[in-house]
UniProtKB/TrEMBL annotation:
This is Methylglyoxal synthase. Substrate binds at H20, K24, T46, G47, T48, T49, S66, G67, H99. Residues 7-152 form the MGS-like domain. The keyword Oxidoreductase does not apply. Belongs to the methylglyoxal synthase family. SUPFAM superfamilies: Methylglyoxal synthase-like. Its EC number is 4.2.3.3. It comes from Stygiobacter electus. The active site is at D72 (proton donor/acceptor). One of its GO terms (cellular component) is cytosol.
Length: 152
């Protein structure tokens, strides 16, 4: 039987904002609409997306590398270290991406660590309309000790 642990997400969430090129306009529009709510949280973004958020919206963002240059992997690492609570990733399902393995790895690690993920405007709206965004929350993840102790 697997054991579980609770990881506290504070009222002030750490939110990663990512968008593929053909989705950046959509994400920027969503951020503009939610500027007030987003300003209450700590924001992270991959390179170009972060630059657009700062220039067009005026929100402070912790900018990482561009997605194809390792930014997706940086966000994944932050998720696994409990430094990201929510992932808003407007990805483009109709365009091939040169860094597609990184994208899949990022989405996979977000599921492994049980963080909320929004992949489009509707799912982002539902996450942000939840009362849980404005209060502390304990997410539950498996205690991975058994996985780490397994025989190979």
């Amino acid at each position: 039987m697997e054991n579980f642990i609770k990881i506290k997400m504070n009222k002030r969430k750490k939110i990663a904002l990512v968008a593929h090129d053909h989705q950046k306009k959509e994400l920027i529009e969503w951020i503009e609409f939610n500027k007030g709510n987003l300003s209450e949280h700590e924001l992270y973004a991959t390179g170009t997306t972060g630059k657009l958020i700062e220039e067009k919206i005026g929100l402070k963002v912790n900018r990482l590398k561009s997605g194809p240059l390792g930014g997706d992997q940086q966000i994944g690492a932050k998720i696994s270290e409990n430094e990201i609570d929510v992932l808003i990733f407007f990805w483009d399902p109709l365009e091939p991406q040169p860094h597609d393995p990184d994208v899949k790895a990022l989405l996979r690690i977000a599921v492994v660590w049980n963080i909320p993920i929004a992949c489009n405007r509707s799912s982002a709206d539902f996450i942000f309309s939840s009362h849980l965004m404005k209060e502390d929350y304990n997410r539950i993840v498996p205690e991975f000790d058994n996985y780490l102790k397994r025989e190979i």
